Amino acid sequence: MKIKSQRDFWSGLMFIVVGLAFGLGALNYSFGSSARPGPAYFPFGLGFLLAVLGGFTLFEALTIDTEDGEPVGAFAWKPLAIIVGSLVLFGILLPWLGMFIALPLLVFTSAMAGDEFHWGEATANAAILTLGSWAIFIWGLNLTIPLLPTFLAR
Predict the structure, then answer these.
(1) Are residues 93 and 49 in the same domain?
(2) Domains contained in the chain, number
(3) Is the predicted pLDDT of residue 132 greater than 90, yes or no?
(4) Which domain, by its residues, includes 22?
(5) What are phi and psi of 2, to 5 degrees?
(6) Is residue 71 part of a domain?
(7) Which H, E and C letters describe 80-123, residue by residue?
(8) 57 HSE (CA, 13 A, CB side)
(9) Which of 46-50, 71-75, 77-81, 128-132 shows the lowest mean pLDDT across its residues?
(10) Closest listed residue to residue 85, CA positions, set 65, 64, 58, 105
(11) In the chain, % of residues over pLDDT 90
(12) Is residue 127 situated within a structural domain?
């Protein structure tokens, strides 16, 4: 079988591998129930969906013709490092600064990885993501995620 789109082939393969890794990693934790999901519930479901999406992308790469085969270009190392660094920073800062500060910091630092950074768009994204995360994880699922910095919460 001939690869008709290299870009779709490699991205589909990456989605499948990452999705399977998350799904298999989640098997070490308790699933809980739909009413009270455990720590494996979300990563397993997300991994499954990611692997399915990768399967569709891989199928498309092998069946749909493209003009030039869509070769994979050079890796953009700087944006990749900025995004991975901002995720690591979020993981480190969340317990001390809380979600209301750490999440907007994540959005602003990761938005700087793009070529078209705009403060207004980043602020709107940070506000919507923070509000949505509060609604889902704190209000909806009753998870114990710190909201405020530890020195203000006492």
Answers:
(1) no
(2) 2
(3) yes
(4) 6-63
(5) -100, 135
(6) no
(7) HHHHHHHHHHHHHHHHHHCHHHHHHHHHHHHHCCCCCCCHHHHH
(8) 18
(9) 71-75
(10) 105
(11) 58
(12) yes
Measured distance CA(108)–CA(129) in Å, rounded:
12
Which amino acid is present at 125? N
pTM of the predicted structure, to 2 decimals = 0.66
Domain boundary among 63, 91, 110: 63
DSSP symbols for the chain: ---S-HHHHHHHHHHHHHHHHHHHHHTTS--B-SSSB-TTHHHHHHHHHHHHHHHHHHHHHHHS--SS--------HHHHHHHHHHHHHHHHHHHHH-HHHHHHHHHHHHHTTSSS--HHHHHHHHHHHHHHHIIIIIIIT------S-HHHH-
Note the pLDDT tens digit of each residue in 80-118. Answer: 999 999 999 999 999 999 999 999 999 999 999 988 889
